[in-house]
TrEMBL record:
One of its GO terms (molecular function) is serine-type endopeptidase activity. Keywords: Disulfide bond, Hydrolase, Membrane, Protease, Serine protease, Transmembrane, Transmembrane helix. The chain crosses the membrane at residues 310-330. InterPro entries: Peptidase_S1_PA (IPR009003), Peptidase_S1_PA_chymotrypsin (IPR043504), Peptidase_S1A (IPR001314), Trypsin_dom (IPR001254), TRYPSIN_HIS (IPR018114), TRYPSIN_SER (IPR033116). Residues 65-305 form the Peptidase S1 domain. Belongs to the peptidase S1 family. Snake venom subfamily. This is Peptidase S1 domain-containing protein. GO terms for biological process: modulation of process of another organism; proteolysis. It comes from Podarcis muralis.
């Protein structure tokens, strides 16, 4: 990713589409562009603009929310931007997460990949706009990364991880934890559900630097696994949510972020799902897939309390590199 104008950009357009014209007594050369040359030059300038434009406002590595709109300041106070330190000294947004305790952020295991060193990461809280919203934001380094040891990169099962922070986060109007359900919630039309993130606004589209939100529907498991949807690929630990038409969805970069539902009787939002993966973004009958948070409550509690079990065979997490054509991880 470009961060300054210290590098050079070379574009090959082809000499046959340019005509050199000499000017008397001038050290400079002028070129007259033919019709084909104009077309190639415009294409090159568009490409150059795509490369240079992020210099104005830092870019993200991986992004996502389709069919959303700008969230108000403080609307989702548990929303976290998980960022990785690069060799140029800057941090880039990689994934989202949810604050669940003073020093704990829940996210997706696939976000980690080979970046297992905690010192590479930081968590940013209270953000609405990436890379510039410092009024209410708080940064924290990461002390420990705890992915699920049985995470499978191919099937995406157990796609959950806990980040322990190096400091306690002070709660305020813009930074609050989200509630965790102790058992799976029975959702109805009385329970509006939402997604949020800084991801792509459409498949192969552009990211939003303003936090996006969208209301979505959580579908019954049998609908998600029907033959013309995911055709039995999903386990009971996975949810699908979005819209049947595909007009609302998560996309690249929203990984690890919250799927949250409101319970009016409790007057609280609960973390129902963790953004995991999808086939494309915003496709009909292929909504985003989320880890069913309630099914991992005991796993989460054991990490929060530091009571991870000790077994005779080491629990090794293997992150394999998988090349996807249509199926992509929601990074």
């Amino acid at each position: 990713r470009l961060r300054s104008f210290t590098c050079s950009c070379w574009v090959t357009l082809g000499q046959s589409h340019f005509f050199e014209v000499s000017q008397p007594h001038s050290p400079h050369r002028m070129f007259v562009v033919g019709e084909e040359g104009k077309r190639r030059l415009l294409a090159a300038l568009r490409l150059l603009w795509i490369v240079i434009k992020p210099l104005v406002d830092e870019t993200t590595e991986e992004e996502r929310i389709v069919g959303g709109h700008d969230a108000e300041v403080g609307r989702w106070p548990w929303q976290v931007s998980l960022q990785v330190h690069h060799t140029n000294g800057r941090y880039l947004h990689v994934c989202a997460g949810s604050l669940i305790d003073y020093d704990s952020v829940l996210t997706a295991a696939h976000c980690i990949q080979n970046r297992t060193t905690p010192q590479l990461w930081r968590a940013v809280f209270g953000l609405r706009r990436l890379y510039g919203d410092k009024i209410h934001s708080v940064n924290s380094q990461v002390m420990k990364i705890m992915p699920h040891c049985r995470y499978d990169a191919r099937s995406h099962v157990n796609d959950i991880a806990l980040f322990k922070l190096s400091q306690f986060i002070t709660y305020n109007d813009y930074i609050q934890p989200i509630c965790l359900p102790s058992t799976p919630l029975l959702l109805s039309d009385r329970n509006p559900c939402y997604i949020s993130g800084w991801g792509l606004t459409k498949e192969n589209g552009t990211p939003s630097y303003i936090l996006q939100e969208a209301e979505i529907k959580v579908f019954p498991h049998e609908v998600c696994n029907s033959y013309d949807w995911y055709n039995g690929q999903l386990s009971r630990n996975q949810l699908c949510a979005g819209s049947e038409s595909g007009h609302v969805d998560t996309c690249l970069g929203d990984s690890g972020g919250p799927l949250m539902c409101y319970l009016p009787d409790d007057d609280k939002f609960y973390l129902v799902g963790i953004t995991s993966f999808g086939i494309g973004c915003g496709r009909p009958k292929l909504p985003g897939i989320y880890i069913h948070a309630a099914n991992y409550r005991s796993w989460i509690d054991s990490r929060l309390l530091g009571k991870t079990s000790i077994v005779s065979i080491p629990c090794v997490l293997i992150f394999s590199t998988v090349v996807w054509v249509t199926i992509h991880l929601v990074l």
